[in-house]
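Is this the right way to post structure tokens for a design question? Let me know if I should format differently. Anyway, here goes:
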């Protein structure tokens, strides 16, 4: 039976030969999803939604699934992709990244670089992200133009940083940013980011967290990324980083700690008790030789956990499909256990679980009333056949190049492989021109 009367009330219909909802054990077959006002309002068969006045995306040979959630990224750092590879974290930061940022990063470069990064992320299926950097107003502008769903956090640190030449003005800049974020629209949340316990004084950490509580927003921090960080904090304060932050009252349900590579059992217990969310960035941690986060232990402790790429300067891409595959494989190798982190659990970290870690509800799943953030993949690919186990195929075989359509909040960001909100040709030309003055003529 056709339901053309209902179809006329829809803004968009998305059809999939296979639909992975994230809420069911088995995928749906030949199913159409009706979207209105940015929300999924109907499920039905292909022909139930036939109406020439309603735009339809997807169809035969397409997989429909929730959009991917990148839980931690530094968008503007695409400018430094490949600039300082094969180095340990502190040398990478102190000798290369921080000097380059001081010379090159401002609101305009952040804006242009963010558009380039967003084009990459949308193209490989990301519909929601958590960004943490400086000159965050430039990021906010780019994110709003792209249409992606995002939490954008303004950075805080104890020494001069892009857009904050005087560290004493850090809190003032943060407040101004949070005020600006109130006008960013429903797709974007403004938040704050403390770089790390070893680069932010106790006074700064307390002040930033209090400001986040005042504005009822998230507070992000790099935590226990390296053994060196743990040693610095322990020598300085007599406590490991997690206990140090807990003593300051920094850890709560609105704090998101990133990396958390070097945690002991007691620290995991503290984070679980405080309901602090964690985000792992396995490819960045591997590349910088920071170590391997204990994600299975986090999940066993009941922590909210997300998955992120980190910035392109330390990854070197922003592809969440690659990140899923890396996380699943490295955990199995590290534990000598092929069941250590199953594909379906990893897929959840990149969708619903990651959304929950960032404080989103009704996101990362395809259900009635859920936010219409979804992607379609072209199933007519040799490496995606046959579909014995869909989560396994997505985690171990997909690479992001199969993504054809991207929808966030009911808005189409990419259709049939073509970006609709970002002029990639123009952005590439502007970034190339911008880089010439410092780095020469780069492709």
């Amino acid at each position: 039976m056709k339901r053309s009367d209902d179809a006329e009330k829809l803004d968009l219909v998305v059809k999939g030969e296979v639909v992975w909802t994230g809420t069911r054990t088995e995928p749906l077959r030949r199913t159409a999803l009706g979207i209105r006002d940015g929300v999924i309002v109907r499920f039905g068969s292909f022909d139930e939604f036939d109406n020439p006045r309603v735009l339809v995306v997807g169809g035969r040979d397409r997989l429909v699934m929730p959009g991917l959630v990148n839980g931690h990224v530094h968008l503007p750092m695409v400018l430094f992709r490949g600039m300082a590879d094969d180095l340990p974290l502190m040398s990478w930061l102190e000798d290369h990244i921080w000097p380059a940022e001081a010379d090159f990063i401002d609101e305009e470069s952040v804006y242009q670089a963010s558009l380039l990064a967003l084009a990459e992320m949308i193209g490989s299926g990301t519909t929601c992200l958590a960004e943490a950097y400086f000159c965050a107003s430039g990021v906010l502008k780019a994110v709003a133009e792209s249409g992606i769903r995002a939490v954008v956090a303004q950075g805080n640190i104890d020494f001069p940083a892009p857009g904050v030449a005087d560290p004493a003005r850090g809190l003032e800049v943060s407040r101004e940013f949070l005020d600006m974020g109130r006008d960013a629209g429903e797709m974007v949340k403004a938040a704050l980011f403390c770089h790390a316990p070893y680069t932010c004084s106790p006074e700064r950490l307390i002040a930033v967290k209090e400001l986040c509580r005042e504005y009822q927003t998230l507070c992000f921090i790099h935590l226990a990324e390296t053994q060196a960080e743990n040693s610095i904090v322990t020598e300085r304060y007599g406590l490991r980083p997690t206990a140090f932050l807990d003593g300051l009252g920094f850890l709560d349900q609105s704090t998101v700690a990133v990396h958390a590579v070097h945690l002991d059992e007691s620290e995991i217990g503290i984070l679980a008790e405080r309901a602090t969310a964690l985000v792992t960035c396995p490819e960045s941690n591997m590349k910088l030789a920071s170590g391997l986060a204990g994600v299975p232990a986090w999940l066993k402790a009941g922590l909210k956990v997300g998955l992120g790429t980190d910035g392109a300067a330390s990854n070197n891409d922003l592809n969440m499909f690659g990140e899923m595959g890396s996380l699943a494989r490295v955990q199995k190798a590290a534990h000598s256990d092929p069941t250590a982190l199953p594909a379906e659990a990893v897929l959840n970290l990149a969708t619903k679980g990651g959304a929950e870690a960032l404080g989103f509800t009704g996101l990362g799943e395809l259900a009635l009333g859920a936010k219409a953030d979804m992607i379609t993949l072209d199933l007519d690919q040799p490496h995606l056949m046959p579909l014995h186990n869909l989560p396994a195929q997505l985690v171990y075989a997909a690479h992001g190049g199969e993504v054809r359509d991207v929808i966030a909040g009911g808005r189409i960001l990419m259709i049939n492989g073509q970006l609709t909100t970002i002029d990639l040709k123009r952005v590439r030309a502007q970034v190339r021109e911008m880089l010439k003055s410092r780095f020469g003529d780069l492709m």
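Format looks fine. Someone answered above. Worth noting: The mean pLDDT is 94. The radius of gyration is 21 Å.
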